[in-house]
């Protein structure tokens, strides 16, 4: 780096070093040199170094304000350096009123966005009533501040001019508050009632967007970004130039506020940090689909997906910049560490520069599903094909999701990649009324009864399905009907019914004597003993020109659900199904005479992962990605 340095100086406080470099150097070289310089000193446990950049407009280019973010992008340096700088600033001796570098996924051609942070400030709220004939609240505050030699950093008043809030440094607030109380105590004899409220431990965040004057809604979009990060804005001021928005917030909210700022002004609107839980068959397929589609999503739809972590039952891999999905399997073996769900969650969600986080649960684990509430509470979007959460207590998840500005999507819990949940929601959101939902929801049982024809034995078809990989390792998990019952509960709740799993009667296809078989192998050996029972049901159906189908029903009108083996005429849509396809029929006030039917593959890694991926893209669209 020394050959690029024009001058340097050690400041008098011995805590800061300023370095002048040639701004005509490539940004990547400057960033790489600075990073090595800072990393060297940090590794020797010295005081924090703060980089101040000065814009030199006579050159054709200048150092981007997004110093460390582009550093991570251009020089492939770990973001962990950037992540610590703002937090360190709060305890360093360097002035807090300094520019903090922000992140960009691309080099910035011109300096048109920036922000300042001022810490260690206090918000003072003054409310006066009965002030007719007395000096205005603003003039009173101005006089007191001038007399004390104190500085107002920000002020705002309501239309009545009786309520004013302003911000001062912590070191000045005691004197200011005392002077205000003294002044207002004297006014009380004239019928004026005043209240002074001091809110400590605040920070000021001032965002500058030189293009703001030409972009409607800059202030609103900035506040919306803060709301999505669950940051409470205590006060706001926007200049008439429309280029600067300044907010006051609690100091502990600064990290999330910076995330929101970076998401709104520097990153793609839909840069998303993702964590994948369960890289099994579904999870691995999803990762491969993201790998193949990532470049197209970024180029054509402004969606930048960065998988920051992958966690399995025993191992996990984490990355500050995003895992190379072309090598994630190798990286997990080479660089994987012991699985730690809390560390994983903190890493994926703790990136200060990416305000949007999605955790995707590709497991069937109820323990993972029990974590959804905490994830949503922390502002993390949750996507899953795991039915365990939605067939259990759901009201709390939904209430929290709405309160925390998060999304909780689970399209793949019913029908894999088929648009079942989204269709149901679309019908209701447009004013249609659901009367009945009926369907073949199990790809396994669809295959079994589509193949259970002629003189074939039921046990023979079940064995065939098991060998083809359609059933669970223990076929009783499918034949019990519990999986279908979970899907019925999910659809019932989406339809407005308050049903629990215990409310749904389920006709199990597992013969009662075999429900306690010690193993799947023993079950399969004993199942032929009961073939005659199912064969008789098939014979009776065929004699009436009907077929057997295993279905789930949501009867919204009578507020109940059921799972059972039913008979259908051979010209019924359910009777014409083939393979492992699912079919779902919606009877509504609009589709009463001719129900709306959705049919297609309801099982398989590709379609299930595709359904999950669709939810990821749906979250991105809600976060601002163009359609």
Automatic annotation (TrEMBL):
Cofactor(s) it depends on: a metal cation
Aspartokinase ACT domain residues: 213-265
Enzyme class: oxidoreductase
Domain Homoserine dehydrogenase catalytic: 419-617
Pfam family, one: ACT_9
Keywords: Amino-acid biosynthesis, ATP-binding, Kinase, Lysine biosynthesis, Metal-binding, Methionine biosynthesis, Multifunctional enzyme, NAD, NADP, Nucleotide-binding, Oxidoreductase, Sodium, Threonine biosynthesis, Transferase
All copies of domain Aspartate/homoserine dehydrogenase NAD-binding, residue ranges: 278-411
GO biological process, one term: methionine biosynthetic process
Domain of life: Eukaryota
Protein EC: 1.1.1.3
Swiss-Prot/TrEMBL catalytic activity: L-homoserine + NADP(+) = L-aspartate 4-semialdehyde + NADPH + H(+); L-aspartate + ATP = 4-phospho-L-aspartate + ADP
Keyword Cell membrane tagged: no
InterPro entries cross-referenced by the UniProt entry: ACT-like_dom_sf, ACT_Aspartokinase, Asp/hSer_DH_NAD-bd, Bifunc_Aspkin/hSer_DH, HDH_cat, HDH_CS, NAD(P)-bd_dom_sf
Pathway this chain belongs to: Amino-acid biosynthesis; L-methionine biosynthesis via de novo pathway; L-homoserine from L-aspartate: step 3/3; Amino-acid biosynthesis; L-threonine biosynthesis; L-threonine from L-aspartate: step 1/5; Amino-acid biosynthesis; L-threonine biosynthesis; L-threonine from L-aspartate: step 3/5; Amino-acid biosynthesis; L-methionine biosynthesis via de novo pathway; L-homoserine from L-aspartate: step 1/3
Record-level Gene Ontology MF annotations: aspartate kinase activity; ATP binding; homoserine dehydrogenase activity; metal ion binding; NADP binding
Function of the molecule: Bifunctional aspartate kinase and homoserine dehydrogenase that catalyzes the first and the third steps toward the synthesis of lysine, methionine and threonine from aspartate.
Similarity annotation: In the N-terminal section; belongs to the aspartokinase family. In the C-terminal section; belongs to the homoserine dehydrogenase family.
Name the record gives this protein: Homoserine dehydrogenase
Species in which this protein is naturally found: Aquilegia coerulea (Rocky mountain columbine)
């Amino acid at each position: 780096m020394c050959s690029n340095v024009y001058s340097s100086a050690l400041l008098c406080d011995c805590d800061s070093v300023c370095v002048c470099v040639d701004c005509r150097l490539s940004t990547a070289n400057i960033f790489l040199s600075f990073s090595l310089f800072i990393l060297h000193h940090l590794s020797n446990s010295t005081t924090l170094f703060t980089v101040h950049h000065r814009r030199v407009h006579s050159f054709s280019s200048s150092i981007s304000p997004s110093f460390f973010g582009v550093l991570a992008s251009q020089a492939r340096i770990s973001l962990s350096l950037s992540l610590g700088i703002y937090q360190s600033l709060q305890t360093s001796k360097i002035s807090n009123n300094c520019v903090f570098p922000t992140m960009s996924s691309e080099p910035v051609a011109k300096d048109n966005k920036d922000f300042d942070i001022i810490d260690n400030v206090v918000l003072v709220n003054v409310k006066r009533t009965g002030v007719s004939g007395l000096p205005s609240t603003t003039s009173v505050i101005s006089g007191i501040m001038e007399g004390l030699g104190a500085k107002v950093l920000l002020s705002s008043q309501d239309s009545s001019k009786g309520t004013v809030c302003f911000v001062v440094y912590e070191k000045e607030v005691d004197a200011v508050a005392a002077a205000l109380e003294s002044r207002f105590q004297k006014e009380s004899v004239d019928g004026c009632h005043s209240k002074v409220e001091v809110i400590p431990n605040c920070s000021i965040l001032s965002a500058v967007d030189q293009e703001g004057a030409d972009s409607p809604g800059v202030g609103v979009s900035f506040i919306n970004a803060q709301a999505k990060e669950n940051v409470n804005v205590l006060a706001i001021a926007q200049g008439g130039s429309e280029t600067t928005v300044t907010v006051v917030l609690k100091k502990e909210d600064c990290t999330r506020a910076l995330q929101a700022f970076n998401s709104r002004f520097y990153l793609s609107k839909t840069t998303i940090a993702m964590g994948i839980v369960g890289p099994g068959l579904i999870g691995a397929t999803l990762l491969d689909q993201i790998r193949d589609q990532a470049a197209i999503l970024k180029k054509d739809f402004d969606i930048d997906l960065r998988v920051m972590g992958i966690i399995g039952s025993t191992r996990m891999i984490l990355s500050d910049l995003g895992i190379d999905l072309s090598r994630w399997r190798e990286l997990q073996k080479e660089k994987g560490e012991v699985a730690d769900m809390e560390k994983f969650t903190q890493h994926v969600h703790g990136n200060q520069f990416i305000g949007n986080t999605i955790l995707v649960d590709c497991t069937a684990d109820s323990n993972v599903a029990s974590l959804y509430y905490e994830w949503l509470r922390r502002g993390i979007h949750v996507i899953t094909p795991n039915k365990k959460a939605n067939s259990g207590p759901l009201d709390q998840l939904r209430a929290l999701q709405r309160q925390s500005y998060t999304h909780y999507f689970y399209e793949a819990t019913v029908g894999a990649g088929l648009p079942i949940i989204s269709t149901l929601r679309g019908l209701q959101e447009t004013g249609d009324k659901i009367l009945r939902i009926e369907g073949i929801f199990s790809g396994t049982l669809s295959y079994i009864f589509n193949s259970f024809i002629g003189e074939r034995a039921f046990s023979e078809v079940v064995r065939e399905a098991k060998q083809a990989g359609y059933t669970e390792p223990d076929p009783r998990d499918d034949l019990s009907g519990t999986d279908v019952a979970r899907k019925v509960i999910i659809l019932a709740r989406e339809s407005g019914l308050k049903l629990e799993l215990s409310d749904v009667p389920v006709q199990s296809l597992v013969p009662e004597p075999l429900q306690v078989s010690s193993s799947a192998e023993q079950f399969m050996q004993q199942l032929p003993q009961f073939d005659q029972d199912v064969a008789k049901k098939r014979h009776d159906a065929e004699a009436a020109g009907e077929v057997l189908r295993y279905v789930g029903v949501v009867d919204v009108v009578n507020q109940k659900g059921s799972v059972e083996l039913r008979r259908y005429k051979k010209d019924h849509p359910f009777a014409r199904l083939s393979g492992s396809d699912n079919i779902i029929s919606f009877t509504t006030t609009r589709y009463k005479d001719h129900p709306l039917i959705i049919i297609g593959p309801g099982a398989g890694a590709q379609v299930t992962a595709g359904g999950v991926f669709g939810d990821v893209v749906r979250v991105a669209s809600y976060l601002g990605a163009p359609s």
